[in-house]
Write a structure and sequence with these properties.
The chain is mainly α and 423 residues long. Helices cover 79% and strands 0% of the residues. Helix 4 packs antiparallel against helix 8 and helix 10 runs antiparallel to helix 13. The longest helix is centred in the first third of the chain and has 31 residues. It is globular. The relative contact order is 0.16.
């Protein structure tokens, strides 16, 4: 019974935090930042992109060190709580921003997104503990499915506030939605902090943060002790780069290239969430049957079809069908990737290694992808050409993932700590 409560609370956290992702990163706040706070000025795009990149860079730099610190100290839940509290508080404060507060809003968003993305490192690291070796795929899929249910729920709840558009005239309703996102995040994330416990570990003689830095440095220098893990992380960098770019530019592409209205965008994102829920569950179960590697290969092939369809799209109706398939591949690829990482990660360093996965490689790709897309789009003068460039990144990721072996996992240990004694 205790395990079921812990599992449900872990799944509920994904339900809670995806409200931030869909509203503050993908849909509402980017448009509010550009149209209202920056008054539609072109400089708003640059400041928004810089804010997103800075937050990702912070997480990429600190995640492995703090992940190792959590492993050594056994205080994983405390780190998760601190990052979550940071995100919720900064999100609520964004409700007080308005025209002329661009730098303040950018700073608060950096804090909010750092808290959100940083918390994922510690949240994902619980997966190998709450799921058995045989059920990792399903549990990971259920987590992402709950996340997409949360995204769909928050969109439905806030639709009355947002249907008036994200513009100066509807600004009070939009800012109110930010307070509600913070409240939603706080309420539904609370159970995980009550159900999960920190590990009891013997105190080390040296400060665990200094020990963590040395541990991460050694891991970086000896990452090839885990060749399959290293190859997977490199593959993940490339295909996750393309996925995050699709997510970051989907609303802009729909509005600028196809002329979607705010109401049509909300409907589009709701449709994407429904197939993402289905994809997370179905492919999560499939992952346990055929393995995460084959599942990732299958989803990357689907992504290539999605990009091709998006390039050929000339009307809104066809783009809705593209969104249905994109949702299916989005949920499945993310769930399978997390399962793959859990299988390849040595148990002793689970949070540290998830720091590299969620932090260093995940966030570095989030920095590079949108920049490359934006440069190609600006130079070519056509977002379709920039979209076609993503096929190159999916291709590299597919090529690299084919060379990863999952016959032997390193969950029980590994060579990373060989010869090291920091006690």
């Amino acid at each position: 019974m205790k395990h079921k409560v812990q599992l449900f609370s872990w799944l509920l956290f994904d339900f809670a935090n995806t409200s931030f992702s869909v509203m503050m990163v993908t849909f509402a706040f980017p448009l509010y930042f550009k149209n209202v706070i920056c008054r539609g000025e072109p400089a708003g795009d640059a400041l928004w992109g810089a804010s997103l990149s800075v937050s990702m860079l912070i997480v990429a730099l600190v995640s492995p060190v703090l992940g190792a610190a959590a492993d050594f100290s056994g205080r994983r839940k405390r780190f998760l709580f601190a990052f979550t509290l940071l995100s919720i508080t900064a999100t609520a404060l964004l409700g007080f921003t308005g025209p002329g507060y661009a730098l303040l809003a950018a700073g608060l968003f950096i804090l909010a997104n750092t808290g959100f993305e940083g918390g994922l490192v510690f949240y994902d690291a619980y997966l190998p503990e709450i799921a058995s070796e045989r059920s990792i795929g399903r549990v990971s899929g259920y987590g992402f499915a709950m996340g997409y249910v949360g995204a769909l729920t928050i969109l439905l709840l806030l639709f009355p506030l947002l249907q008036g558009g994200i513009n100066p005239e509807n600004s009070p309703n939009v800012t109110l939605s930010f307070f509600l996102v913070a409240l939603f995040f706080a309420v539904f994330s609370a159970p995980v902090f009550l159900a999960l416990k920190d590990e009891k570990k013997k105190p080390v003689k040296t400060h665990y943060l200094g020990k963590s830095i040395r541990e991460v440095r050694y891991t970086i220098l000896h990452i090839m002790n885990y060749p399959d893990l290293a190859r997977f992380l490199l593959a993940f960098f490339f295909y996750n780069d393309a996925i995050l770019t699709v997510i970051a530019f989907s609303s802009i592409y729909a509005q600028n290239t196809l002329g979607f209205t705010t109401t049509e965008l909300i409907a589009f994102f709701m449709i994407v969430q429904t197939t993402a829920i289905l994809g997370s569950i179905v492919f999560g179960i499939l992952t346990d049957r055929i393995g995460p590697k084959r599942t990732i290969v299958l989803t990357l092939c689907i992504w290539c079809v999605v990009i091709t369809m998006a390039i050929l799209t000339k009307d809104k109706l066809f783009f809705y069908y593209t969104g249905l398939l994109a949702g299916l591949s989005m949920g499945s690829s993310q769930a399978a990737s997390r399962s793959m990482m859990a299988k390849l990660t040595p148990k002793k360093h689970v949070t540290e290694f998830f720091g590299f996965y969620d932090g260093t490689f995940g966030k570095a790709s989030a920095i590079a992808g949108p920049v490359i897309f934006g440069v190609i789009s600006a130079q070519a003068g056509d977002q379709r050409i920039a979209l076609a460039s993503l096929l190159f990144f999916f291709g590299i990721g597919l090529f690299l993932i084919l060379g990863v072996s999952t016959r032997q996992t390193h969950r029980s240990g590994g060579n990373v700590s060989d010869g090291r004694d920091y006690s």
